[in-house]
């Protein structure tokens, strides 16, 4: 309850007159995002990543020619937020459906938006063979080292020692194996053209994430084949920590296991069309 004796201080000029404060609008909602609130957990990286993708689509001026693909998982909500065509697919199958659509509509920008449980587990076959074929679409791979929507179970990318609802004492390599490094694995395939890994742990890395996703999209528009950007993203809810702590946890634990940077760029330094 507000204290009746409490006075609200307002800035005054030298003559004692009340000075009006105005807020300067420095950015707008991208046209490629619907004007609806996100339902993601506090501190989740999906909302930020959605905005990054929407800004890129607007900057490339291709909203009417963009088709996204969302699977099961937290990524399933993509069609509620992106203001362009988004196709819902069965769990792990976005690369298969994206292959069909891109071949039918080669002039469209086609991208999949997938989590680690989706892409690196049930969808492993689809992503590996799409990359091996050099399919000309882009992949945004969100790695938060856990099954976010279904209750925080161990994912293929869960770190050694990391506690989840199915590894209450931490992941053990002898029984659960090691975390899968999808980007490094795909980079060994001849059909994979552009592979890189970024993170959402700092303003600098957020800027880098946008730059690399835009590069992957341009890679596709230039007809250069398969491109994938892996984005390390926080999941405070299933990591059982506050949002600010999740960012430092990413830097201290995830990035050493999943190093950031461009892993493969087949056409580096070569102009489009060559």
Describe the structure.
The protein is an alpha/beta fold. It has one domain (46-265): Thiamin diphosphate (ThDP)-binding fold, Pyr/PP domains (Rossmann fold), CATH 3.40.50. It is 35% helix and 15% strand. The chain contains ten helices and seven strands. It has helices spanning 46-60, 78-81, 94-104, 116-122, 124-133, 173-176, 182-187, 203-221, 236-239, 243-257; strands spanning 66-70, 85-88, 109-115, 138-143, 192-199, 226-232, 261-265. It has a seven-stranded mixed β-sheet with strand order 2-1-3-4-6-5-7, sandwiched between helices. Helix 8 links the parallel strand 5 (192-199) and strand 6 (226-232). Helix 1 crosses helix 8 (203-221) and helix 4 (116-122) crosses helix 5. The protein starts with 45 loop residues before the first helix and ends in a 9-residue tail after the last strand.
Itemize the secondary structure elements and their pairings:
Layout: H1 46-60, E1 66-70, H2 78-81, E2 85-88, H3 94-104, E3 109-115, H4 116-122, H5 124-133, E4 138-143, H6 173-176, H7 182-187, E5 192-199, H8 203-221, E6 226-232, H9 236-239, H10 243-257, E7 261-265
Parallel strand pairs: 1-2, 1-3, 3-4, 4-6, 5-6
Antiparallel strand pairs: 5-7
Helix pairs in contact: 1-8, 4-5
């Amino acid at each position: 309850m507000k204290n009746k004796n409490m006075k609200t201080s307002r800035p005054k000029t030298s003559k004692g007159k009340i000075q009006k404060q105005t807020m300067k609008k420095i950015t707008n909602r991208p046209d490629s995002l619907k004007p609806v609130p996100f339902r993601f957990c506090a501190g989740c990286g999906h909302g930020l990543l959605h905005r990054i993708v929407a800004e890129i689509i607007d900057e490339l001026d291709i909203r009417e020619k963009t088709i996204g693909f969302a699977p099961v998982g937290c990524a399933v909500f993509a069609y509620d937020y992106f203001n362009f065509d988004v196709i819902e697919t069965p769990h792990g199958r976005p690369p298969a459906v994206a292959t069909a659509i891109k071949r039918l509509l080669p002039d469209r920008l086609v991208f999949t938006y997938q989590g680690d449980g989706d892409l690196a587990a049930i969808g492993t076959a689809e992503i590996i063979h799409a990359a091996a074929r050099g399919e000309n679409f882009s992949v945004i791979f969100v790695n938060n080292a856990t099954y976010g929507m279904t209750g925080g179970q161990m994912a293929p990318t869960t770190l050694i020692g990391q506690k989840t609802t199915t590894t209450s004492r931490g992941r053990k390599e002898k029984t659960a194996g090691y975390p899968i490094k999808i980007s490094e694995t795909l980079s060994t395939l001849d059909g994979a053209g552009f592979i890189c890994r970024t993170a959402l742990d700092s303003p600098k890395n957020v800027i880098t994430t946008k730059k690399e996703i835009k590069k992957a999209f341009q890679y596709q528009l230039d007809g250069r084949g398969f491109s994938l950007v892996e984005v390390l993203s926080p999941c405070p809810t299933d990591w059982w920590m506050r949002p600010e702590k999740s960012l430092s946890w990413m830097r201290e634990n995830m990035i050493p296991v999943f190093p950031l940077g461009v892993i493969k760029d087949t056409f580096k330094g070569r102009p489009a069309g060559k």
